[in-house]
Write a structure and sequence with these properties.
By secondary structure, this protein is mainly alpha-helical. The protein has three helices and no strands. 10% of the residues are buried.
């Protein structure tokens, strides 16, 4: 029985791709959480709110934080 004929080759490739995407998403999530904790100004409850959004919504919250808070903060700090 050939591994390519049985479909296991295709499934193992998909498994590797999804595993890699999952690992990269987890790294991105941790990066955004650390960025929020270190760089978000502590004005009112903003920092706590963003940490909760990132933690409770996982990847979606990290993406939202990246585009709504991190990008404008980086662009405004450039000379």
């Amino acid at each position: 029985m050939h591994i390519m004929n049985s479909g296991l080759f295709f499934l193992s490739g998909l498994y590797c791709i999804f595993g890699l995407v999952g690992i990269l998403a987890t790294i991105f999530w941790i990066w955004m959480l650390v960025d929020c904790l270190k760089n978000e100004p502590s004005e009112g409850n903003d920092k706590i709110l963003w940490v909760l959004v990132i933690i409770l919504t996982h990847g979606v919250g990290a993406i939202i934080y990246f585009f709504i808070r991190r990008q404008p903060r980086i662009q405004s700090s450039r000379p």
